[in-house]
Amino acid sequence: MKADLKMMKENIKAAYLAPMGLKEQLVQELEGVLACHDRLILTDRQPAKNPLWAQNIWFNPEVIAIKSIRDAVNKLKALQRNWCLYSFDLHRRAELIQKELPHVSARPLKFPSPLPRSPLGSWTLLNRDTLLAATECSSLFPNGEVQFEEDKKEPPNRAYLKLWEALTTVQEYPRPGQFCIDAGASPGGWTWVLQKLGAEILSVDRAPLESRVFNLPGVHFQKGDAFSLKPEDFLETGKKVDWLLSDVVCYPEKLFDWAVRWVESGACDNFICTLKFQGVGDTQMVQKFVAIPHSQVIHLYHNKHELTWMRLKSWGRSGIQRQIGFGNGDAGQT
Prior knowledge:
29% helix, elongated, VC0802-like, Rossmann fold, 7-stranded mixed beta sheet
């Protein structure tokens, strides 16, 4: 055991928590994989800069020998106050340790809301007498899970949670007086979010919006192919597009060609688009989105087998890109 513990201490450089059902996608991205503990992947390499399928990254985790539950609690508290448990085995023992640590509020966010201010460490039991702990993680949320106080009455579907999460992580929001295009809007979850924020929306889809969204003030519906919208049409009329959003079910190649046309035209300031995949996903296609200047590609907690591409005007203006919703400044950026 002592030899194994010494080897682990020397070798583990980072740990990655995969989203539910997407471990294989993350494993394929990483190098130097030492072990997989359910969704937690340990590697002997420094944290990767662009782990697209990671829900949370543990930076510089420590392997710590413990003699008892009390010893584990004392050693974690000596490192810092706030801890989140990821449990894959020995669940009862792990829960007893977590219960003795200082309470960390995990109340769902009320949208819109600022990001949590306090860093949150993560830990797990590797075996009965050994824990793995990282004081710094990429996500500010417990195990990367961004939970909201859901509205179960007004939105026509649960897709609105993706847009809530995207806007929360970037901490920028469409506002009154701004004009948004919601491509592939039906049944209207994203349009509903934009309207509640006070923006004017052009919603485009072959299928109609639900009536409760269609009849909201500031919502204009256009039936047809969202990809038929051309930036030139708006440039000619002088209509400024502040936000272009897409949750269209389509091949990423088609979305890329359309999005790049809008980016190069300068007709729109801000973009949030969902990249949807069948099977493992096209890594080369994703990297084309990553390479678009002043943009980021991440997996949101409320994404399923999807990634989200975002590009904000403020990122280009500042000359840097903040890592959205994360504690470090590298992952998922160009």
